[in-house]
């Protein structure tokens, strides 16, 4: 289903379901999709591969500058280790500044785009026609992440994952540049008690209302 010039900005904390919803909405409307979190994960991955510190600003900026949207190793980047590392890199203002233009260029296509992350509605696409802030309880998000990791054959200790989720929430919300928070005109969607289809239906209703 193609529509003219529709930008959908989806933000939210880790494991809230925003990525799944973004992919489903992009497929439904025939729009390109960008998981912006992968940009920070790929930057962190490049640093780790070179044996560099995650808080090495100069190296992190260079790594971000060299990213290509076409060569991500999705499975590796979605590991628990890379998620924690990405949160550290994303807190560096210099790295965020380097990646802003890349994300905005992606969103500037003629037909529009769907982007998900943590500062899409507030920083990257403040003029997006539709903004959704997806959330869920920390416990529910930790449970989802544990199931996701276990499904990939990775170690999944619920208590450790819950601690990581809460730590990432605190870091993402407290950073000085582009903190995790809903845009003033975003619609909040709590997926704690929704399955995938229920969440998609609710998100679709939000988008349709925004288009109208």
UniProtKB/TrEMBL annotation:
Example GO BP: pyrimidine nucleotide metabolic process
CDD domains found in the cross-reference section: CMPK
Enzyme Commission number(s) of this protein: 2.7.4.25
Domain Cytidylate kinase: residue ranges: 8-202
Catalytic activity from the UniProt record: CMP + ATP = CDP + ADP; dCMP + ATP = dCDP + ADP
Annotated positions binding ATP: 12-20
InterPro entries: Cytidylate_kin (IPR003136), Cytidylate_kinase_dom (IPR011994), P-loop_NTPase (IPR027417)
GO molecular function, one term: CMP kinase activity
Pfam families: Cytidylate_kin
Keywords: ATP-binding, Cytoplasm, Kinase, Nucleotide-binding, Transferase
Subcellular location: Cytoplasm
GO CC terms in record: cytoplasm
Main location, first listed in the record: cytoplasm
Keyword Kinase: yes
Entry keyword annotation includes Secreted: no
Family of this protein: Belongs to the cytidylate kinase family. Type 1 subfamily.
Protein name per its UniProtKB record: Cytidylate kinase
Organism in which the protein naturally occurs: Methylocystis heyeri
């Amino acid at each position: 289903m193609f529509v003219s010039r529709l930008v959908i900005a989806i933000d939210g904390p880790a494991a809230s379901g925003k990525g799944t919803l973004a992919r489903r909405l992009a497929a439904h409307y025939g729009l390109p999709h960008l998981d912006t979190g992968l940009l920070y994960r790929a930057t962190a991955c490049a640093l780790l591969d070179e044996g560099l510190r995650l808080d090495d600003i100069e190296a992190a900026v260079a790594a971000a500058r060299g990213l290509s949207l076409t060569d991500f190793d999705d499975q590796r980047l979605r590991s628990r280790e890379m998620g924690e590392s990405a949160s550290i890199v994303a807190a560096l203002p210099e790295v965020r500044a380097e990646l802003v233009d890349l994300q905005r260029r992606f969103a500037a296509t003629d037909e529009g785009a769907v982007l998900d992350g943590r500062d899409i509605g507030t920083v990257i696409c403040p003029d997006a026609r539709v903004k959704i802030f997806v959330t869920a309880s920390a416990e529910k998000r930790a449970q989802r992440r544990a199931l996701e990791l276990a499904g990939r054959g990775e170690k999944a200790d619920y208590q450790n994952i819950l601690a990581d989720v809460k730590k990432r929430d605190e870091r993402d919300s407290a950073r000085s540049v582009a903190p995790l928070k809903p845009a003033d005109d975003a619609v909040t969607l709590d997926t704690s008690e929704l399955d995938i289809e229920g969440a998609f239906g609710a998100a679709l209703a939000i988008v349709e209302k925004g288009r109208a």
